[in-house]
Amino acid sequence: MPDRSRREKIPRKATPEILEAAAHDYVKRFATTQAHLRRVLMRRVIRSARFHNTDPDEGAAEVDKIVAHFADAGLLDDRLYAHARTRELRLRGASARLIRVRLREKGVDEELIVESLAAVDEEAGEDGDGELSAAWALARRRRLGAFRAASERTARRERDLAALSRAGFSYDVARQVVDGDLDDGLDSP
Fold it and tell me: Taking the CA of residue 112 as centre, how many other CA atoms within 13 Å lie in the half-sphere pointing to its CB?
């Protein structure tokens, strides 16, 4: 029987043309930040450097040029990315803590994170209460608190509080949602 073990794929040499084509392909498929695109391309450079015994610093310089070129061309906009991702996560019921973590993972600056959180909450018409609206959205989506059958609410209260806490909401916000009425949750978007 032939050996069916997976053969290791030989990486292509990380030339400027290959890196730029990879960057174009990545940006076409995914919204991303400058820092994240740099990480994606550097993984390719490092893999190539190990296999082909080339200098990874040369590849890093080329990656920096490509990222700068894409940013100048408007293909990468960290502010736009942070704003759109924050809006998307807020609508799904993400807490500010979770949004901060997700945006930091993509290399967004803390100042930009704070700005996008404020802008999204202001757009939604929240009076500094975007957390509460997001908690209600999560409760609705996961059927917690007021969205749970009345017969199960008391028995599941602690679990619902814990679920909202794990999602990054404060105890006060979680308590308002779990102990609130369905009318309170329907008022929020």
Answer: 19
Class of residue 154 by CB neighbours under 10 A (exposed 0-12, middle 13-18, buried 19+) = exposed
pLDDT in tens, 137-151: 999 999 999 898 888
* Calpha distance 22→51 (Å, rounded): 18
Measured in whole angstroms, how far is the alpha carbon of residue 124 from the centre of its chain? 19
For residue 23, the one-letter residue type is A
Task: Indicate the pLDDT class of residue 124, thresholds 50, 70 and 90.
Answer: confident
- Assigned domain for 175 exists: yes
Alpha helices in 30-168 (DSSP H): 34-52, 56-72, 78-91, 96-105, 110-123, 130-142, 150-153, 157-166
- Joined tokens for residue 119: 């802008």
Residues near 157 by Cβ (< 8 Å), separated by ≥ 6?
Answer: 178, 179
Q: Report the pLDDT value the prediction gives residue 130, as an integer from 0 to 100.
A: 86
- Residue 9 maps to a domain: no
pLDDT in tens, 50-70: 999 889 999 999 999 999 999
State which residues form the domain around 26: 16-72
Cα distance between residue 19 and residue 24, in whole Å: 9
